[in-house]
């Protein structure tokens, strides 16, 4: 059995250097959540809690800006406008609690590269950050993000889990759950942690949601594909990925 580790951490690097992401957000809980997920993915983060400091930091060798619109001092739109006017070309991702179409239009007119609406799943934000950096050539695709565990292959680029080369046909949440578990192989993850990482911190459902999805995942992998059990129950706590 060969089990290569997750390679998603490579996404945050270019030429062996960690990419620097500015997280400009005045809501501390959201900021820390984003920082946590970005760093887990191999990025370096710099935080700013208000407009003026966000602007100052953004001018200092930042590779990508995650920009809250509602920042004290100078709002996110003004920061984006200023950075573009100064000729800075780093990708900018606007994060906003507002859902008006006009905001989306304004964001792109100002030169933003993407637009995320709160509440969001941090996992999705990180995925978008990676996609933008990949598009702008700042991360290399030389290392395909494929995790292999015996007959099971998890292909992050194709968003596909395969057994013996055949797509298992997982639903998006089942797939996301498998990725989080497999990326932490051997580590017991609580239902709470799984909820946060797969469904997002703002998800209202209860922990049984996790159980239901684990059951489906096992049914597909074990019963349909006769794979040895790899998602183990950690009683009174959560689940652990441990290939046979
Ligand atoms: Ca805000």
Structure overview:
With 244 residues, this protein is an alpha/beta fold. It has 2 domains: 3-135, 3-Layer(aba) Sandwich (Rossmann fold); 146-241, Arc Repressor Mutant, subunit A (Orthogonal Bundle), CATH 1.10.10.10. The protein is 38% helix and 22% strand. The protein has helices at residues 28-40, 51-58, 76-85, 101-109, 122-135, 172-183, 191-199, 208-224; strands at 13-14, 17-18, 20-24, 44-48, 64-68, 92-96, 114-117, 146-149, 152-155, 160-163, 166-167, 188-190, 231-234, 238-241. It has a 5-stranded parallel β-sheet with strand order 4-3-5-6-7, with helices on both faces. It has a 4-stranded antiparallel β-sheet with strand order 8-9-10-11, with helices on one face. Strand 8 and strand 9 form a beta hairpin. Helix 6 (172-183) packs across helix 7. It starts with 12 loop residues before the first strand and ends with a strand. Calcium ion is lined by residues 26-27, 68, 70-71.
**Helical residue percent?**
25-40%
The main sheet orders its strands as 4-3-5-6-7
Task: Determine the structural class based on helices, strands and strand pairing.
Answer: alpha/beta
CATH architecture assignment of the largest domain: 3-Layer(aba) Sandwich
Note the quaternary state here.
single chain
pLDDT < 50 runs, ≥5 residues: 1-11, 140-144
Shape: elongated
Taken together, the total number of domains comes to 2
CATH class of the largest domain: Alpha Beta
Q: Give the full name of the CATH homologous superfamily of the largest domain.
A: Response regulator
What is the string of helix and strand elements? EEEHEHEHEHEHEEEEHEHHEE
Ligand names: calcium ion
């Amino acid at each position: 059995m060969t089990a290569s580790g997750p390679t998603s951490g490579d996404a945050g690097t270019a030429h062996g250097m960690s990419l620097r992401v500015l997280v400009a957000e005045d809501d501390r809980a959201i900021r820390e959540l984003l920082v946590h997920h970005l760093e887990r993915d191999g990025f370096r983060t710099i935080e700013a809690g208000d407009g003026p400091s966000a602007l100052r930091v953004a001018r200092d060798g930042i590779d990508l800006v995650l920009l809250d619109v509602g920042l004290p001092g100078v709002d996110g739109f003004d920061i984006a406008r200023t950075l573009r006017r100064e000729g800075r070309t780093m990708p900018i991702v606007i994060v906003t609690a507002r859902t008006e179409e006009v905001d989306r239009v304004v964001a792109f007119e100002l030169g933003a590269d993407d637009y995320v609406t709160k509440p969001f799943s941090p996992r999705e934000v990180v995925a978008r950050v990676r996609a933008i950096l990949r598009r702008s050539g700042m991360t290399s695709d030389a290392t395909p993000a494929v995790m292999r565990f015996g007959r099971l292959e998890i292909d992050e680029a194709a968003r596909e889990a395969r057994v013996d080369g055949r797509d298992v046909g997982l639903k998006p949440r089942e797939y996301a759950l498998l990725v989080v578990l497999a990326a932490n192989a051997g580590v017991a993850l609580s239902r709470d942690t799984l909820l946060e990482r797969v469904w997002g911190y703002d998800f209202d459902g209860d922990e049984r949601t996790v159980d239901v999805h684990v059951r489906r995942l096992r049914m597909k992998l074990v019963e349909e594909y006769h794979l040895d059990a790899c998602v183990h129950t950690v009683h009174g706590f959560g689940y652990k990925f441990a290939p046979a």
